[in-house]
Amino acid sequence: MSANPRGHGRGRGGRKKGGHDDAEHPDERWMASYMDMITVLMCMFLVLFAMSTVDQQKYIQLKNSLATGFGEVKSQKIDTASGTVVTKDQVKDGSGYSEDKSQADHSTASSGAKDTNVDPASTVVPTTATKADVAAAQKELDDLKAIEAAIKGNLDKAGQTSNVQFTVDARGLTVRLVGSETYFTTNSADLSDQARRIMDAISPVLKTADHDVSVEGHADQRNSTAPYATNWELSASRATGVLRDLVERGGMPAEHIQSVGFGSSRPLAKGGTDADLTLNRRVDIVVLSNQDQDVSALMPALAKAQDGAHQG
C-alpha cells in the first residue's frame, strides 16, 4: 500500500513537470503569419505613398495644355488639331458657334427635300489623309470614271441611256438598273429584251475592267406574290438573273462576280408614290474598288469636288 501512494505521487509529479514545460515553451507558429501580414501592409503603404507623389513638371504641362485648349493662354506652338477654339465668354451666349452648312443640308435631306443617301461629311477630304492616299484614291476614281464613261458610250450607241444611273461611293462605282418593269416582267427574274440590250452595253466593259463585281437585287415595300414567297426571294432571283447574263452571255469571269438579295430592306426612297416604288425596284451592279477602305473612303469627296469643278 505504501508503494501505490509513491507511484501515484510520481505520476502527478510527472504531469506537473510536463505542464511546466508547456508554459515555458508555448506554440509560436502564429508569428509567421503575423510577420507576413505586417510585410503585406508595409508594401501596401509604400504603393499608396508612391501613387500620392505628384510629378510637378507633368502637372504644369497638363495645366498649360488645358488652358491653351480652352483659349485662356496663347500658345507659342502651332496647334495642328482641327476644330474651333471657343473662349469662355463666347460659350455663355453661344456666339462662338457658327452654323454648319453641311449639317443643315443633312437635316433638309432627312426631311425628304434632298437625297437621304448623301452624307455631307463625304464631300470633304479629311485633313488627316496622306498625299499618297489621296493620289491613290484619285487614280482609283479615274479608273472607275473611265468604266462609267465606257458604259455610257455603249448605252448611247444602243439608245438605252434611260433607266440606268451611275453613282460613286466608298465601295466603288454603282451602275443602277432602275425600274424593274424595264428589265423584268411582273414577279419574274427573266430578263426582258430591252434588259438584254442594256446588258450588252454593260458586260463588255465589266469583262475587261479587272474589278470584282457585286450584283445586288432590291424590291419595293409591297409584299411579293407567287411564285416568290417574300421580297427576299424575288430580289435575290433578279440579282442572280443579271449575274447569269453577265457570265453566260457577257463573258464576265465567274470568280470575280457575286449576287445578293436585299429584299426591301434598303430603299432609296421612303415614300409610297409610283416614282418612289420604281426607284426602290432596282438591281445595282457595283464595280468594287480595288483599294483598301482608307483610300476608297476618300473617293466620294474627290468625286463631289470633281463634279463641282465640271459644273463650274
Q: What's the topology here?
A:
Layout: H1 3-24, H2 30-52, H3 56-69, H4 88-93, H5 101-110, H6 131-158, E1 164-168, E2 172-178, H7 180-183, H8 193-207, E3 213-218, H9 231-249, E4 257-261, H10 274-280, E5 282-288, H11 293-296, H12 299-311
Parallel strand pairs: 3-4
Antiparallel strand pairs: 1-2, 2-5, 3-5
Helix pairs in contact: 6-8, 8-9
Distance between the termini: 137 Å
How many helices? The count is 12
The helicity comes to 40-55%
Class of secondary structure makeup: alpha+beta
In round numbers, the mean pLDDT is: 77
Strand content: 5-15%
The topology string of helices and strands comes to HHHHHHEEHHEHEHEHH
Which stretches are low in confidence, meaning pLDDT under 50 for 5 or more residues running?
5-19, 78-83, 91-123
Report on the structure:
- With 312 residues, this protein is an alpha+beta fold.
- The chain is 53% helix and 10% strand.
- The protein contains 12 helices and 5 strands.
- The chain has helices at residues 3-24, 30-52, 56-69, 88-93, 101-110, 131-158, 180-183, 193-207, 231-249, 274-280, 293-296, 299-311, and strands at 164-168, 172-178, 213-218, 257-261, 282-288.
- It has a 5-stranded mixed beta sheet.
- α6 (131-158) packs antiparallel against α8 (193-207) and α8 (193-207) crosses α9 (231-249).
- The chain is elongated and about 105 Å long.
- It starts with a helix and ends with a helix.
- Residues 5-19, 78-83 and 91-123 have low confidence and may be disordered.
